[in-house]
Amino acid sequence: MNVADSEIVVSILKEKGFIHTNEINNADIILINTCSIRDNAEVRIHGRLNVFKQIKKNKKDLIVGLIGCMAQRIKEDLIEQNNVIDIIAGPDSYRDLPKLILKVKEGQKAVNVELSRHETYSEIMPFRYNTNNISAFIPIMRGCNNRCAYCVVPATRGVERSRNPETIINEVNSLINSGYKEIILIGQNVDSYKWKNENNSKVNFSNLLEIVANINPSIRIRFSTSHPKDMTDEVLYIMAKYNNICKCIHLPVQSGNSRILALMKRSYTREWYIDRINAIRKIIPECAVSTDIITGFCTETEEEHKETLSLMEWANFDFAFMFKYSERPGTYAQINYIDDIPEEIKTKRLTEIINLQNKLSSENKNADINKIYEVLVEGYSKKSKDYVSGRNSQNKVVVFPKENYKIGDIVNVLIKKCTSATLIGEAVKSYE
Predict the structure, then answer these.
(1) Can you tell me whether residue 49 is helix, strand or coil?
(2) Strand partners, 135
(3) Peptide bond connecting 351 to the previous residue in cis, omega within 30 degrees of 0
(4) Residues in Cβ contact with 22 at an 8 Å cutoff, skipping those fewer than 6 apart
């Protein structure tokens, strides 16, 4: 989401005559797009600001702005905490950046952290300044109405707003005309996408997914992120129907215990989540499933932790993003709960979760050996220019000899072996 937002920001500024540069020493303005999901992200920003402070000593007129979720969360306090910052702009204030920059040039600090119930930046065509020209993100909605107890997103990004599907279609067509091969539809919760026009005609996420898939059958479609309470069989059947919709779903579970899920205000139970996984396995048997897990949430017992482990093993996740619970200021959990799990217990539980997921990921990759997958070539292998790298429909990284293949090609690859993170194979001319 931050990548997509940054592309919108650059587009807004280019429209006003600014030029994007990849060289920091050439910059007259530095904007740092920030995240507040975890404390570590904000800690890193403070370190980055110290670097810019040194640059500013030698370039007195340099403007430094903090934008995005951290800017929205801490607001004016950031300027008081760090005098290197000239601009504070929240996620719904990017259109105002040219005016904020002008205000700083006139000698003032500039702040706009007003959240909107309507802003989607729908008609702004993002400037794709930092992509491989193969894959591109398209935000289909902004904000979130799910009030998960641990999460700052509703406070930093506001309520859910869905984009007009026509603007999404226009952006897809523009990317296809520019040679892109893969579209990734993104939102805090894509399953809750809803649009109603003046004629009362409605478009939900499954409708939108089908519309986008039909634009060009040779263009891959991915999406993220899904919410277990909103993922419908209708979406799964659309995924199964179209070959160009990639067979991978990111479905955060967070905990395998229903009591903890209720405390987290996740709006589903362990049993509901299991039902959604069963539906995926039944309707799209070849689908890969990834997840998010938070361990050590308030009052979590050892038995409840073991329920998370057992759910992981049962679901057989292909990937997982795994974290210790860390309290975020202003969230429901921070205000109403006690962060009472000792750090050493959190670390122990996280280690067990990571070890189990490593085992599951390894088993899943070994099960791919001797299978043939269509791989979209995205670049060269990190280890050798003689090999190219890409991903299959299941979002698994595949490396194979370059031969005459180039970036953007879709190649049938027979998997011969694997590492903990990568499938390794060789190109084949056709399925046998």
Answers:
(1) helix
(2) 182
(3) no
(4) none
Residues 6+ apart with CB under 8 A from 51: none
Helix axis angle, 233-241 relative to 205-215, nearest 10°?
10
- Here the tokens at position 268 are 């589903």
**More confident: 101 or 35:** 101
The answer as to whether 103 is a domain residue is yes
Question: What is the domain range of residue 52?
Answer: 2-112
Residues 308 and 357 in one domain: yes
Same domain (yes/no): 342, 380? no
Number of H helices, E strands in the chain: 14, 19
d(CA 57, CA 61): 9
Length of the chain: 432
Exposure on the CB side of residue 373, measured as CA atoms within 13 A = 29
The amino acid sitting at 157 is R
What pLDDT digit, counting tens, does each position of 157-167 carry?
Answer: 999 999 999 99
Q: Residue 302 belongs to a domain with what CATH number? A: 3.80.30.20
Could you tell me the pTM of the whole model? Answer: 0.93
Q: Amino acid letter at 381?
A: S
| Closest listed residue to residue 377, CA positions, set 366, 363, 391 | 391
Q: Is residue 117 part of a domain?
A: no
Which phi and psi (to 5°) does residue 212 adopt? -65, -40
Residue 270 belongs to a domain? yes
